[in-house]
Amino acid sequence: MEASAYCFSRRGRSPRLLGLLICIYGALLAAILLYDAALWLMALLALPTLPALYDLYTDPEAGLRLDGTSLRWHSGRRHGAVTLDEIEHMRLDTRWDFSVRVTAVLCNGKKLRLPAESLPPHRLLESEMLARGLRVERHHFTPF
């Protein structure tokens, strides 16, 4: 019996992102009003939030679909697909910041890195891949 298709999607606009941006901009504004912080310094500190602000505005969608024959993913304008027959194994690398990178290693030696924003929680993804007969390799805290 074939497993049903597993679908995962997420949007760029989320209550968590909105709350985080409100807290950051509130702290920067409080620093300006209460402590007379330099405007140029607060503007410099606000620069790293611009990509998050852009995601809040554009609300990009990212996701993944895994069925009995193929693996498909999309993130904004990027998308990709590969059949399960082409995949030698899936590699899950835990990085030093505890994030997990997922790479499809193909039979021809080519490696396809899946975008992080299109991935579900890694334990759930691993169980879904194993249910479809894919070999999964886990590598913890590798420098590469």
How does the SSE layout of this entry go?
Elements: E1 6-11, H1 15-35, H2 39-46, H3 50-58, E2 61-66, E3 70-75, E4 78-83, E5 87-94, E6 100-106, E7 111-113, H4 122-131, E8 136-140
Parallel strand pairs: 5-8
Antiparallel strand pairs: 1-2, 2-3, 3-4, 5-6, 6-7
Description:
This is PH domain-containing protein. It comes from Antarcticimicrobium sediminis. Keywords: Membrane, Transmembrane, Transmembrane helix. The chain crosses the membrane at residues 17-34. By secondary structure, this protein is of the alpha+beta class. The chain has two domains: 6-10 and 61-140, Pleckstrin-homology domain (PH domain)/Phosphotyrosine-binding domain (PTB) (PH-domain like), CATH 2.30.29; 11-58. The protein is 33% helix and 33% strand. It has four helices and eight strands, in the order βαααββββββαβ. The strands form two sheets. The protein has a four-stranded antiparallel β-sheet, with no helix packed on it. Strands 7-6-5-8 form a four-stranded mixed β-sheet, with helices on one face. Helix 1 (15-35) runs antiparallel to helix 2.
Quick structural summary:
This is PH domain-containing protein. The chain is of the alpha+beta class and 144 residues long.
Regions with little confidence, pLDDT below 50 for 5+ residues? none
Order of helices and strands: EHHHEEEEEEHE
Number of DSSP strands? 8
Shape, principal axes of CA atoms: elongated
Q: Note the gap between the termini.
A: 38 Å
Could you name the CATH homologous superfamily of the largest domain? Pleckstrin-homology domain (PH domain)/Phosphotyrosine-binding domain (PTB)
CATH topology descriptor of the largest domain = PH-domain like
